[in-house]
């Protein structure tokens, strides 16, 4: 069984986008946008995370990471979270040159009880083509990966196994 990425892990792209990698990291519970709360998020707890894209190839890529390329599921049953598309900072039509990074800050909200299990799916646009979607899991209570290795390279008992066990138990024993 393949494991999802854990918050903090780098995900390498294959074939068409070799040298490009993406990371979802810096999850912060209770992080309200500087421009204030959206009225649609009343009664929900805000959280934020970063999406960083790095180019290790020898050519540039044109990136687009907007609200259409991000999906967030919260809670053990995977309910949709409120994505604050107006207060988040996106990557729009940005040319990412070799050895450079671009980051987006995403703000979302969900019921506080659902923040024990968060799934974040990223399927950005690169050179006007959609990429394969990749998923990161985590929460306020799951330790973030250091981002030094990809999950698919992890062998034996690692943080991905801990997250899988946590989710199998319903996300309540942390």
- Enter the CATH topology name: Immunoglobulin-like
Going across the biggest sheet, name each strand in turn.
Answer: 1-14-11-6-7
Strand count, sense and barrel status of the largest sheet are: 5 strands, mixed
What is the chain-wise order of helices and strands?
A: EEEEEEEEEEEEEEH
Mean pLDDT: 87
Task: Give a structural overview.
With 174 residues, this protein is mainly β. The chain has a single domain (5-168), classed as Immunoglobulins (Immunoglobulin-like). The protein is 6% helix and 40% strand. The chain has one helix spanning 159-168; strands at residues 5-6, 10-12, 20-29, 45-55, 61-65, 70-74, 79-80, 82-83, 91-96, 101-110, 118-122, 125-126, 129-130, 134-138. The strands form three sheets. A five-stranded mixed sheet has the order 1-14-11-6-7, with helices on one face.
What is the compact description of this entry?
This protein is mostly beta strands and 174 residues long. 6% of the residues lie in helices and 40% in strands.
């Amino acid at each position: 069984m393949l494991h999802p990425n854990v918050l903090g892990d780098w995900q390498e792209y294959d074939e068409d986008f070799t040298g490009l990698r993406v990371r979802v990291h810096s999850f912060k519970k209770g992080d309200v946008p500087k421009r204030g709360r959206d009225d649609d998020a009343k009664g929900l707890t805000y959280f934020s995370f970063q999406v960083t894209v790095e180019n290790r190839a020898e050519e540039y890529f044109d990136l687009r990471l907007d609200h259409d390329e991000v999906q967030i599921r919260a809670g053990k049953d995977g309910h949709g979270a409120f994505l604050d598309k107006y207060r988040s900072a996106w990557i729009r039509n940005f040319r990412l040159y070799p050895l450079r990074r671009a980051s987006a800050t995403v703000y979302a909200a969900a019921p506080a009880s659902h923040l024990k299990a968060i799934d974040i799916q990223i399927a950005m646009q690169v050179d006007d083509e959609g990429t394969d979607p990749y998923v990161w899991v985590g929460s306020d209570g799951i330790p973030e990966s250091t981002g030094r290795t990809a999950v698919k390279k992890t062998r034996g008992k690692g943080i991905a196994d801990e997250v899988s066990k946590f989710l199998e138990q319903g996300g309540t024993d942390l």
